[in-house]
Amino acid sequence: xxxxxxxxxxxxxxxxxxxxxxxxxxxxxxxxxxxxxxxxxxxxxxxxxxxxxxxxxxxxxxxxxxxxxxxxxxxxxxxxxxxxxxxxxxxxxxxxxxxxxxxxxxxxxxxxxxxxxxxxxxxxxxxxxxxxxxxxxxxxxxxxxxxxxxxxxxxxxxxxxxxxxxxxxxxxxxxxxxxxxxxxxxxxxxxxxxxxxxxxxxxxxxxxxxxxxxxxxxxxxxxxxxxxxxxxxxxxxxxxxxxxxxxxxxxx
Amino acid sequence: xxxxxxxxxxxxxxxxxxxxxxxxxxxxxxxxxxxxxxxxxxxxxxxxxxxxxxxxxxxxxxxxxxxxxxxxxxxxxxxxxxxxxxxxxxxxxxxxxxxxxxxxxxxxxxxxxxxxxxxxxxxxxxxxxxxxxxxxxxxxxxxxxxxxxxxxxxxxxxxxxxxxxxxxxxxxxxxxxxxxxxxxxxxxxxxxxxxxxxxxxxxxxxxxxxxxx
Lengths: 252, 213
Prior knowledge:
With 252 residues, chain A is an alpha/beta fold. Chain A has helices at 32-41, 61-72, 86-95, 104-108, 110-120, 154-164, 185-194, 208-216, 227-230, 236-245, and strands at 5-13, 16-21, 24-28, 47-51, 77-80, 99-102, 125-135, 138-143, 148-153, 168-173, 199-202, 222-225. Chain A has a single domain (5-245), classed as TIM Barrel, CATH 3.20.20. Chain A is 37% helix and 28% strand. In chain B, helix 1 packs across helix 6 (198-210). Chain B has 213 residues and is α/β, with parallel strands linked by helices. Chain B has one domain (2-210): Rossmann fold.
């Protein structure tokens, strides 16, 4: 039976790991390659690097980080953040990423998803959907780290991305990100039920019960978290044992 | 000795090459891992690894595009009978025909077809992505020191369907039973990615390196 995945996410800026609270107040916490190795040893199912380097001149640093990680960790690696062109995707894949996550660029240019899925295969194209609740049962896509509203409906957008060839959706609730209050379960469930590609729940994990909710209630195929693993509150194994005790199929 | 990872423009081959190097180090083998599409180098290799990412069609057309590569692979596998390990779409290419995007001829080394996984009326998500348990169907060197029901990492939407049941080494369950490893004489393949399956994956690569056919 296919297992639900637990994915630790590392926010990387200028080659260093950070985790922001609502994308500000960044706390520097280490070398991404070392962190990746720890998660590999702990049995993480996948790794996710989110590159939040703002300046263009430092953008190539992530390629080096990806390269070094892929040489040490023989596990799936997803990289996102600032991916704008086919060339960006190609460079990340060649550096050793297995999947590339496209965010703002997918909103601006839907053909990028289509073209890249045709070129590299749907299996390596993840679309990052950053959604904010605007009223009851209505979520909109926000770009630029959650600062810019687009007016685009998150559900319709997710469906569209699937039809364009996205192989997976990385769904982040911008209302919950950094709050430790748990995933936006309504949103997660709605999108998971709507699309036939896997959905990764993201944004808001403060405890292991939130991972359980994301899978059980949100129907997510995978759950992503950063700070609870990163600051040593929980190990990946603890998370898996917890989920296992709740009857969620995980790989231990 | 040298092992060649066939480079025909199908995504990142570094992971596969690096994992093979690590497997060789683990075994203290003095094996050179080469990544190339050069027929001359391939001919002189002891074993080859055929990776594959993207669609069956793109992969096969990618091989055909490189002068002499298709013939070299056929000779290596069918005439010289030297070991080949196909990974993911690399294994799927062993089949006679693939049906991804449109009907495409494969190598036909194993009698089979590659068709879309039945998603059970949309009950199952595709791609089949993540860690699934494998069911070992018969003894095969590739899985020595691998426990039955071990987890491997998968990412695919199409499956290898073969009529040559004796070639099926391992299956997994995703709605239906799916063939995830085949073996026929000097030909072996896995649908999952050993280079992404952490320790178990490295053991499989070690087994391939140790194999004397």
